[in-house]
Write a structure and sequence with these properties.
single chain; alpha/beta; Rossmann fold; five-stranded parallel beta sheet; five-stranded antiparallel beta sheet; elongated
Length: 238
């Protein structure tokens, strides 16, 4: 399927581009950081699937969908779950809430494949897709003048400090690196990590106890904010 990504968040586009590359049955034709620029392109190009953000400035994904003449398959991507019903009423294949884990993305692609080409859907996904369990269990981050390897299992939690983050590890040390917290959230959400506060991402396996508004990791009590509480508690079945 020929697909397009429309999202005003560069990191969200980068993540989806990476996901699309892992599925050989998808061909990324173009990306757009706003829906207005995408209208004429979609109307003049044969596109099978659009990964479409809903909440964008000036021109929302829903307004875009009501404007275009051609109607490809649509998978909505958004940080807000409030639009789910409206999205499905517009005939969307699926509705993905950010941060999007790969397995959830893949499930949506399977649904789209079943609509686009039912006979080939299962074969295309099973044969040509990099399985999530084969993905690496470490990452490299830039610290001072070197790239430092960090095993996910050794990370206790991550603290955001404006443009930098501190990555605390089981050896009672931390690594300071220039990277955004949201980029790490997108990378680690399917690796057993969860964002529980605007300034913190935690490794769930290292949680010792949970209070109403805090978790204990090592000897550090980390706050849980109201905006992340429900998602976190659902993730750990609490």
């Amino acid at each position: 399927m020929k697909c397009v990504i429309i999202d005003d968040e560069p990191l969200a586009v980068e993540l989806l581009e990476d996901f699309v590359r892992k599925v050989d049955s998808l061909e990324l034709v173009s990306t757009f950081n706003n829906a207005i620029d995408a209208v004429s392109f979609i109307n003049q190009t044969n596109i099978d699937l659009i990964f479409l953000d809903i909440q964008m400035p000036h021109f929302s994904g829903i307004e875009f969908l009501n404007t275009i003449e051609k109607k490809p398959l649509i998978i909505f991507t958004t940080a807000y779950s409030d639009y789910a019903v409206e999205g499905f009423n517009l005939g969307a294949v699926d509705y993905l809430v950010k941060p999007i884990p790969f397995h959830r993305f893949l499930k949506s692609v399977v649904r789209a494949q079943q609509i686009f080409n039912p006979a080939a859907a299962v074969q295309a996904i099973s044969e040509n897709t990099t399985a999530p369990e084969l993905e690496q269990d470490f990452m490299f981050v830039r610290a001072e003048y070197e790239n430092v390897k960090m095993n996910f299992a050794d990370i206790l939690f991550i603290e955001g400090l404006k443009d930098y983050v501190k990555i605390y590890t089981t050896d009672n040390k931390f690594t300071l690196t220039l990277i955004s917290l949201i980029k790490l959230e997108n990378l680690l959400s399917s690796k057993g990590f969860s964002r529980i506060h605007r300034s913190y991402i935690i490794n769930i396996k290292h949680v010792k106890s949970i209070q109403k508004n805090k978790v204990l990791i090592s000897d550090k009590r980390i706050p849980i904010s109201e905006s992340y509480k429900n998602t976190f508690f659902e993730k750990i079945n609490l």
